[in-house]
Amino acid sequence: MTDAAQQPIGVFDSGVGGLSVLQALRAELPYERFVYLADSGNAPYGERGDAFVAARTQAIGDHLCAQHHIKALVVACNTATAAAIHEARARHPQLPLVGVEPALKPAVAATRTGRIGVIGTRGTLSSHKFARLLASLQGQAEFIVQPCNGLAHAIERSTAVPPAGVQDATEIRALCARYTGAMGRFGSSPGEIDTLVLGCTHYVFAQEVLRDLLGPEVTLIATGEPVARQTRRLLQAAGTLAAESGPPPPPQERIRLLTTGALAPLQNAAHRWLQLPAQCCATVDVPQPR
Ligand code: DGL
Question: Which residue of 42, 79, 101, 221 sits with most ligand 1 atoms within 8 Å of its CB, as the best mutation to test the pocket?
Fold first, then answer.
């Protein structure tokens, strides 16, 4: 095992959404250390524009490399991947880098009716990268694409302390109902949308609401697990996979969560979604270079 194998894997998102990817990473790679950076001080990214998102992605990638000596970077944000993954690869040519994109190919494999819904941020769904992905699958299924302005922000806000509770839950449900309602009928009969791609990592945390609204016949597709498997493959190829012997270290010893926003919402999200203690979390300043 090389020294690099001991280094953490960096994971980053505009906010708490990428914790859904971290969940899959920690299950797939129980011996690895992770440093997760939530840019909650600047979330949401989806309605910000490419130049801003690209600048934040580069600043955070640089910070994770310089301060945490990461051995790989997972960009757990569809919006940042669409806006900036090419530049990040060019900037860190030696670093294994994994991005996330809406899982259209698995959706094509899963659909029976041939009608697939895709929800994501405006930034992701209006990107050239997404247009190319869609074009590559032309003729294989019909895609109904719906940007969900405000949904990631509502999920982000639902981690606030003290919790707004019912108000947040109602807003998330109302947004999910409005956007899926605009896409047409969901179900397993001919002509209905039977598969919904969650093209934003935040939306995984609205899964129960979506399932309740759309019914049990609709398949929801997220990207955490394939991203985790791809991360394992890249580490294996680089020879930097952590040694996998003996009992895995407890999560609080191998996972560090950082935020550019307020601490309490991250602690709340970490506890609620990842069962991690508050001591795993800290704030961080990642200024924009001039
Ligand atoms: N979680 C992010 C994504 O997957 C971005 C949400 C946002 O900040 O708008 O696209």
Answer: 79
- 42, 75, 127, 201, best to mutate for ligand 1 pocket (most atoms within 8 Å of CB): 201
Rounded-to-integer distance, Cα 146 and Cα 18, Å: 20
Query: How confident is the model over 257-286, as pLDDT tens digits?
Result: 999 999 999 999 999 999 999 999 999 999
Predicted model pTM:
0.95
Q: 């899982």: which residue's tokens?
A: 103
* Exposed / middle / buried, residue 25 (Cβ in 10 Å: 0-12, 13-18, 19+): buried
Task: State the catalytic residue, choosing from 148, 200, 280, 281.
Answer: 200
Element (H, E) at 130: helix 128-136
Beta partners for 118?
145, 197
Burial call 236-255: b when 16+ CB within 10 Å, e when fewer: eebebbbeeeeeeeebeebb
Q: Do 148 and 121 contact (CB within 8 A), yes or no?
A: yes
Sheet holding 97-99, edge to edge: 97-99, 72-75, 9-13, 34-38, 255-259, 281-283
pLDDT per residue over 91-121, tens digit each? 999 999 999 999 999 999 999 999 999 999 9
Q: Which residues contact 212 (CB under 8 A, 6 or more apart)?
A: none
